[in-house]
Amino acid sequence: MKKSSILMIFGALLLLGLFKFPLWNITLGAPQYPDPLGMNIYIDGIEGVEEFDIQNIDGVNHYIGMKKIPKAEEMWEFTIFPQVITGMVILGVLIGILGFFGKVSYKWFLGWFVLMSVLGIMGMYDFNAWLLDYGTDLDPKAILKLTDADGNPLSYKPPLLGTAHILNFTAHSYPRLGGYGLALGMLFTLIAYFVGRKEAKTLKK
Amino acid sequence: MKNLTLSMITIFIAALFVGCGGEQGSKKSGAMASSAAERTYVAPGEYDEYYGFFSGGFSGQLSVYGLPSGRLFKVIPVFSQDAEKGYGYSEETKAMLNTSYGFVPWGDSHHPDISQTNGELDGRWVFINENNTPRIARIDLTTFETAEIIEVPNSAGNHASAFVTENTEYVVAGTRFAVPSPQKDMPIDEMKGNFKGPLSFISVNPESGRMNLEFQIAMPGFNYDLAHPGRAKSHGWFFFTSYNTEEAHTLMEVNASQNDKDYIAAVNWKKIEEYVKNGGGEKMNVPYAHNVMDEHTHIATTTMKNEVISVDPRDVPDAIFFLPIPKSPHGCDVDPSGEYIVGSGKLSTDLTVHSYTKMIKAIEEKDYDGEAYGVPVLSFESIRAGTVSQAGLGPLHTEFDGKGNAYTTFFISSEVVKWKLETWEVVDRQPTFYSVGHLMIPGGNSQKPFGKYLVAMNKITKDRYLPTGPEVNHSAQLYDISGEKMELLLDFPTIGEPHYAAGIKADIVMKNSKKIFKLEDNKHPQAVKNEKDARVERNGNEVHVYMTMIRSHFAPDNIEGIQVGDKVYFHVTNLEQDYDVPHGIAMIGANTSELLIMPGATKTFIWEPKREGVWPFYCTDFCSALHQEMQGYVRVSPKGSSVPLKWSLD
């Protein structure tokens, strides 16, 4: 159980990267923005890639009536997410230590992974809901009111993952270092489960 | 008839052959060599390899070009008002043009030079001199704006300027028109022996760039024309050419051209610096203006100073010598090693090159050939390194490629001549179009010239471009000097009359170029950093409008309660923090220029409404899709009206 437990602890600790590195990143490039505007999404707030990017994204968006990018205190998520991550790191490390001393079985590792996956999916769902609201709940006094071929108001929702063209802008939405750390950490805990299972079988023999 | 036809055919065929011959004759480099067009073509979106800073001459400004494309990027206003940018019109910038003669709206800019560290260009500042009202300006290359202008007192015709020493310790100013010093009422024909030609040494603070006039050397009243610093081994010396050692004062073209030789003044500035540090020199009362643009408030202030330290050259032994140079020299150029001092006697066909090593030896051995007003004249033959014989007509100015070659312009024979240092042989000559004055090799005034291109700045344009009436812009020509022979690549028109230029590798400068001014760092006392703080205040008949601008509205955009006879100050802050989003503002009936305000900056103009009515103002620089809507109104009521002061942005 030693090897798998160390993997479990290491995997859980990788989540700590989220406190330093952005989870996600959205960039907006356009002909007149050869250096794209960008926002880094952290678990505790949104920051511009360059110092004034948020202000400039808000400036561009006011033409089409989009709301301003929320400050950390304006969204409950930015308070809850750090707590959830902290909790999961503590839980993961605890399970790992207990596993190391043979107090809990390797199945707990899978349990942690499943819980983290559920929380992750919930987080993504919430993030997507915010993007949808951000891109579609527009000021009725917007300067530019654009409609699609069917006469419906255009949605300016950036993609959850991938690249999309929104008017003159090209939006790229991808995970960043913190997000990759999260994925890698979760992968380690899954591997910990399989390694733990193998170790258990070897022990039985 | 048949004969006529036959002869016409013959002529036609002959013409065809001549034509072909001509074509082949000009196609020297063969099919594989790249064309001039390719070598100067900078594709859309790509960058030039060099910045070129060209003086504006009688425009008073400094233009910024890209090389090798010859594309104009910007005209930096320096010594002349510029209505396009509001320079010299806005309340913040007016003080930049103050002098001891009051506000002077125009200047004659001459010789730009880029700051150096250890003899290499560091790309922090460009210095440029003004000839008419003697001044030196410092342009900051993070903002490409004029940061400081210092007047040079006791001088007239500040021509031998604004060259810097190899660690930018000093920028110099020489007097081209000898004058009484201090100025006084006296008969002109008593000039001889009574006029002076002060050489000024202005220190540059290595951190801030701030200039200070440290001392002036009260040289004999010759006309000091151009200068260059010693470098490497000759660092610590400065060399100034002079003409009119005859000290003539009328019909100068004849009377100032009689002496067989004039002088280069070699000045050991380190010695004089030490002399002054030890309390040497005399304090002299003379007014001069020092104008500084505060980088935090963006407001220029003028300090009137009234004291300089004047040094009599006879009081500092072994510090100043005259090097004889034939025939009214113009350019005075020092090669990258610091050994050779080239004097271009403009009425001569030869170039005389003096040796620094021989000069030092002659000084040690007191190898003099007389003196002039107490300044020793070194023996011509003892210090001469060599002569470039019969090089051309009317040599003016020499630059170097750092590979042992020198390039000299010849005004009268209209050509650039390449010659070799040490062998003094001419290796190539190329015509210029026409009558070249100065030339520039990027990094030419440093220990490390870049040596790839040469720009000739021509005084006469005539037929080079589509005609534009009697007045045509001056023309510059770009040559490739990377090979053995110089190749003409490009013609491009220039602004005013470039008397000199300074070039530098783009990557040294471009990384420091600011994109915006940070609003939070704006210390302008009338700045408004938040739209909700925009307001209008009355104080007697003075009204102050504290206004903001952001895409795409002013705040406030409706103002009432202004009265005929009021003096209305518009203090306008651009709240943008995005690159290349300036806003402008203009008001009908304002007797001044528009303002062009960069992101994060505040500028002020005054409007004195003369008639009742409702008067619009608007944004002058296309800023966004709603630029046309960026406008507002001011209601003007009769004097003493009861219409209350109010303002709004709804």
Walk me through what this model shows.
The complex is a heterodimer of chains A (205) and B (650). Chain A has a 5-stranded antiparallel β-sheet. In chain A, helix 1 packs antiparallel against helix 3 (77-100), helix 3 (77-100) runs antiparallel to helix 4 and helix 4 runs antiparallel to helix 5 (177-204). Chain A contains 5 helices and 5 strands, in the order αβββαααββα. In chain A, 50% of the residues lie in helices and 16% in strands. Chain A has 205 residues and is α+β, with helices and mostly antiparallel strands. The longest helix of chain A is centred in the middle third of the chain and has 30 residues, at 107-136. The model of chain A has no long low-confidence stretch (mean pLDDT 93). Chain A has helices at residues 2-13, 53-61, 77-100, 107-136, 177-204, and strands at 24-30, 33-42, 45-48, 162-166, 169-175. With 650 residues, chain B is mainly β. Chain B contains 7 helices and 47 strands. In chain B, the strands form 11 sheets. A 10-stranded mixed β-sheet of chain B has the order 6-7-8-9-19-20-15-14-11-10. Chain B is globular, with a radius of gyration of 28 Å. The termini of chain B are far apart. The model of chain B is unreliable at 12-31 (pLDDT under 50). The interface between A and B is small, with 9 and 10 residues.
